[in-house]
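INFO batch 0412 | record 1 of 1 | parsing
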Amino acid sequence: MTAALQMNLQEPNPDPSGVEFATSADGMPVARISDLVLAMVTSPNGFAFLASAVSAHRPLAELTRADFIGHDGRVADEDEFRARVAETAGHKRDLAELNRVRTRMSTSTP
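INFO prediction complete | emitting tokens
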């Protein structure tokens, strides 16, 4: 099953939507959307899931499985991975269009 999960891309490949696709040092399909990096990680059981890393500033080809901490659900194959990445990129664009300002607030509770 791992042969089906491997991408043929070695160098980062920018998508027209602003998403950068590549293959990680571990051979995983990875994608960068602004400051968010997503990967299709294969488990020892053979199923694949979408994993995320925030603020991974190294080149995509240098990332390894250890860089990814978030688990965002299963994906069946690379096509579904790319579809999920495109969906995430669309959501990030929608948020940017809302002109929301993120602010940090500290509060103390009794």
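INFO post-check: DSSP finds two helices and six strands in the chain.
INFO record closed
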